[in-house]
Backbone:
């Protein structure tokens, strides 16, 4: 697998700190001021707020709506990207999971799908801007699975990605955990021995790189 910079640099840490401060400190304060502006402008007092106060309240509302609007846009775009990536790797012959066997964690840019018919697993993780993990597994490529709270983990045989994890509702996570346990006792045949599922995913991931202008380390490793 091609070596990529997975860890955040100092700019990433600053951006993460800025977002944390905004959502936990700035946003509640702006929300309180915005509520006060609604009360002021909805009341019929003897005096109207001045232009300076109106400009201030406009800035407050912009400080609320613009970041939240951008976040909504980012989540929608990420969801669309994940679905397109999954579509590039889905086929009736190799990977076509049922709806209840798929998890989409848009907030963290992750997807996990389990095909009980073919015994195949697809994992996608938008690690950071420009880097996406795309990994296909058969029943021979993972060793164990566990559910801890709301996180489902799958232990793999890959030293580069030894553990796949995704946040999921505990009830759905328990169902997926039981599904993986049941699948581990079954035998699945590979319909294309010359291009097994993990290799197929790695090759097809080059289309993910092209379509989304990202680096997929698993695909780069095949070059």
Residues:
């Amino acid at each position: 697998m091609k070596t990529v910079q997975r860890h955040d640099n100092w700019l990433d840490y600053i951006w993460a700190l800025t977002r944390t401060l905004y959502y936990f400190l700035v946003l509640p304060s702006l929300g309180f001021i915005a509520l006060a502006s609604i009360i002021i402008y909805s009341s019929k007092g003897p005096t109207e707020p001045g232009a300076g106060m109106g400009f201030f309240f406009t800035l407050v509302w912009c400080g609320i709506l613009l970041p939240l609007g951008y976040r909504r846009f980012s989540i929608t775009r990420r969801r669309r990207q994940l679905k397109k990536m999954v579509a590039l790797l889905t086929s009736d012959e190799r990977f076509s999971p049922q709806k209840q066997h798929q998890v989409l964690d848009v907030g963290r840019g992750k997807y996990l799908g389990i095909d009980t018919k073919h015994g195949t697993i697809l994992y996608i993780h938008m690690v950071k801007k420009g880097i996406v993990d795309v990994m296909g597994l058969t029943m021979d490529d993972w060793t164990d699975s566990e559910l801890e709270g709301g996180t489902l983990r799958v232990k793999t045989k890959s030293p580069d990605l030894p553990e796949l994890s995704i946040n999921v509702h505990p009830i759905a996570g328990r169902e997926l955990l039981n599904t993986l346990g049941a699948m581990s006792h079954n035998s699945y045949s590979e319909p294309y021995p010359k291009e097994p599922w993990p290799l197929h995913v790695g090759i097809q991931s080059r289309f993910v790189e092209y379509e989304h202008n990202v680096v997929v380390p698993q695909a780069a490793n095949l070059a």
In short: The first helix runs from residue 10 to 42.
